[in-house]
Amino acid sequence: MESMVQELKKIVTFKKTTAPGDLLLVAVEKSKSVFYALVTDIVRDDSRREEWWNLTLQILSVPPQQVVWTLREPQFTGQEIFTMGGDGRFMQAVDFTKPEPLPEKNGPRKKTTGPRPLLKRVK
To answer: How does residue 101 score in pLDDT terms, banded at 50, 70 and 90?
Structure first.
């Protein structure tokens, strides 16, 4: 799981905090899957002595799924890899404010004239 997280941190810019409205990237160890979830609410779980939080998430799948996970702050801010049902998980909010330019593989791109197509077919 640690190697998966390190690879994700190389290609995705993450935030250090998580708040309602943030988009989380969630990685699951057993299925080796990654998905996005929208944070819709964060509420303190008063039934526990230590600081645990109920995160209401909208998993961005088809159809969308709403879940509530009870986590500690280091778990939902990417500071800690944790387990749910024995399955390793990592989650951290994605930072969309500073997109980093991708390295160009074949030198600088040539500018084209005329309108560019809106969609590109990938085979």
So the answer is: low
The pLDDT confidence band at residue 100, using thresholds 50, 70 and 90, is low
Q: Which residues contact 20 (CB under 8 A, 6 or more apart)?
A: 39, 40, 41, 42
List b or e across 1-10, with b for residues whose CB sees 16 or more CB atoms inside 10 angstroms: beebbeebee
Sheet strand arrangement including 82-84: 65-71, 53-59, 33-44, 23-28, 87-93, 82-84
Tell me the two tokens of residue 63. Answer: 């159809």
Average pLDDT, the chain: 87
Domain residue extents for the chain: 2-93
CB 55 within 8 A of CB 41: yes
Asked if residue 63 has pLDDT above 80, the reply is: yes
Judge whether 30 and 22 are in contact, CB under 8 Å.
no
